[in-house]
Amino acid sequence: MPKHLLYLSDWEMHAYLYDKEGLSPVRDFYDSPAGRAEFGRYLEEHAGLPTYLLVDLTEENFQQETLPHVMPKARRAMMERRLGQLYRDTPYRRAEVTGRQADGRKDDYILFSALTNPAATSGWLRVLQDKRVPLAGMYSLALMGKLLRKGLRLPATPLLLITHQSSGIRQSYFEHGHLVFSRLAPWYDNGLEGFADTVLHDVEQTREYLATARLLAREERLDVAVVAARACLAPLQGRCRETAASDYHLIDIADAAARLGLGGSVLPAVCDTLFVALLACKPPARQYETFEQNRIYDMLRWRVALQALAGGTVAVGLAWAGLNADASWEHYRRIEALNAETVRITLDYNAVLRSMPRTEVSARDMKAAVEIGKMLRQNMTPMEPALAHVSQALAAIPGLTIDLLHWKLRAPYAAATTNASGQQQVHAATLGVPRQPDQVVTIEGKVQPFAGDYRSALADVDRFVRMLEQHPQHNITVTRRPIDISPAARLEGQASATPTDQPAPFAIELVWKQ
Length: 514
Known about the structure:
Layout: E1 3-8, E2 12-19, E3 22-30, H1 33-43, E4 51-55, E5 60-67, H2 72-86, E6 93-100, E7 108-115, H3 119-130, E8 135-140, H4 141-151, E9 159-165, E10 168-175, E11 178-185, H5 192-212, E12 222-228, H6 230-237, E13 246-252, H7 253-259, H8 272-281, H9 291-355, H10 363-379, H11 384-396, E14 400-410, E15 417-418, E16 424-425, E17 438-447, H12 454-469, E18 474-480, E19 504-512
Parallel strand pairs: 1-4, 4-8, 9-12, 12-13
Antiparallel strand pairs: 1-2, 2-3, 5-7, 6-7, 9-10, 10-11, 14-17, 15-16, 17-19, 18-19
C-alpha cells in the first residue's frame, strides 16, 4: 500500500510519496497561513493514505538522567512524573530507558526528550486533523539517528554523528549505541569550504562540551561520522585525519542509501530524503504521540484488519464448501456404484431363482423351516440330567421309595390350546422356541419302614429336599409331607395306639430352570 510521508523543518513542510517504485518528492509548503491552506487542499487528494510525519526542529530538547531501578509499572509512573516536571508546556514528550549503571545502585539511564515549542507543529497537525488524515505517528529525526547508526554499522560508543540537513547541520552524540543528546545548528550555504570549516569547528566545540559535562574524557577517543553529499565531503578528505583522539568516517548519501538497502529511493542532495526513505522502509514504534490524529489511523488499521478477517472468513468458507462439495460428489459416486451393484445382484438372484425348478414351498419358507429346525435341535430338552440328580439323592437315603415320577416341560405362558376342530395345539415355547423350557419333575413316594416314626420320616424327607436344593438350577416345592404339620392341620389319634406298618407318603415338585 502506498505511503504518504511529511518532513517538517522550522520553516517549511515537504511532502513525499512512497510506493513500489520508491520515494518521490511531491510538494513543498512554507510555514504561513497561505502555505497551510495550500497544504490542506493538497491533503484532500491524499486523505486516505497512511501518513508519517518526520520533524527536524531546532527546539527539541534532550536530557539524560538516572532513576532508581524499580518494577516496570513504578518506573513508568516515575518517568511520567519527571516528564511533567521537565516539559509541562508541551504534549509532545517521551522517555526511554537507554541503559543501566554498571556499579553503585545500578540505576537506570533515562533519556527524556520533547518538542519544546508545540506551536511549531500544532498548526500543521490541525490541518491534518481537519482533513481526517490517518496519521500513523510523529517521529523525530534526531531519534531516527539510532536506526541510521545501526544501519551504517558505525561504532557503538562514543560516536558523534553529523548529518547535513536542509535546515542545518545536526549533531547527535551516542554512547553504547544509545542517543545522549542531539542539536541542530543552522547553516547558511557559504561554499563547500565553509561546510568543512563549520563541521570541524562544531566537532571541537562538541568535544569541549562533552569533556566539561564529564560525558567524555579529554584523552578518550571519539569517532566522528559525517553523512553528506559527495561534493560536501571532498574538502574534508584532506583535513580529517585519524588521530589518537578522533577518527573520521566520511559517508556519501548515495553510499549510505545503498548500505541501508534503500536503492534508488534517495536523491543524493541532503540527508532529508535519506531519513524519509528510512522511515518509509523501516518505520519504528511511535515516538511522539498525537492521540487525536493517531485515532483516525488506528480506525483505518482496524477497518483494514476487519476487511482482511472478513475476506479470510469468506475464503475459508469457500474452501470448506469446496471440500464438502468434493466429498459429497465422492459419496454420490459411491452410492451410485452401490445402487448399480445392488441392481446387478438382484438380477443375478432372480435369474438363479428362475433357473430353479418350481416348488409349492417358497425359498423363504424353506429357510424359515431350516432355521426353526436348528433352533429345535439346539434347544431340545433332555430329561437325563434332572433324573440323574434325583437318583443320586435317593441313593443316599434308602428309606425313601418312589411310587410315581412324572416329567413334563413348562414354558412361560405356553399353555396348550384347542382349535375349532377340537384338536389340541402345543405352544411353540414348549418345543424350545425361542429358548429351552423349564422341566417339571413331580416325585411321589413313601417312607418305609415307617412304624409310626413321624419324626424320622420328616427328617428323611427334609434331607432329600436339601440334597436336591444343592443344585443351582433346582427349585423345590414340597407338596405333601408324611404328616401335615401346617398350622391349619388337625392332629388326631390315641397315645396308647400301637405302631402300624402303614407307609408315610410324600410328594415333591422339582422345577429344573434352564
